[in-house]
Amino acid sequence: MQVAIPLFPRFTALDAVGPYEVLQRIPSIEVVFVGRRRGEVRTENGMLGVTCDATFGDVSAPDVVVVPGGIGTRVLIGDDTIRGWLQSVHPGTRFTTSVCTGALLLAGAGLLDGLTATTHWRAAQQLNELGARYVPERVVEHLPQRIISAAGVSSGIDMALRLVELLVDREAARAAQLLIEYDPRPPFDSGALAKADEATRARAAEFLQFRK
User: Which SUPFAM superfamilies does this chain map to (predicted)?
Assistant: First the structure.
């Protein structure tokens, strides 16, 4: 079973690597990083590089697609290459999914028209403008349409565990969770916009100025 994770300049590392860490634990799943060309792709801050081992042309029939987000999604919404690839492979996938602002690329390809979906809270309005209906949930499923979206960054791990349950079975998902020792107990309870106070939101906005 092949899972394709498309990479592009200025993607968010955990959006891609979080699901990868879950999915690659399953012996029947092969994860491939795919892009416009083979070679290294740098994350949004330029500090980390991940290698694409295949081009979009090489991967024409993946079983699952996991589209990560990141600042780089903004310039790709109307990109013919990734839009065309998503439109061509989606009819044959078992699931086409997104993490964070990867949902903008699914929406740009017309795959979320009229559907509820989630993304990073900062991109909610943009997602709505592209034809989807944003909901502030961790993971949103449309199983008849074979579409799943996850909210910001770390939520991709939750979505990947759910994918393992759907693709294999619940025990496999539980085993993957154990293998990565995913038992989150964060020291703070500010991981969702609704839980963050004004001071926390202001500091987050300050940090975001450095990512433009």
Answer: Class I glutamine amidotransferase-like
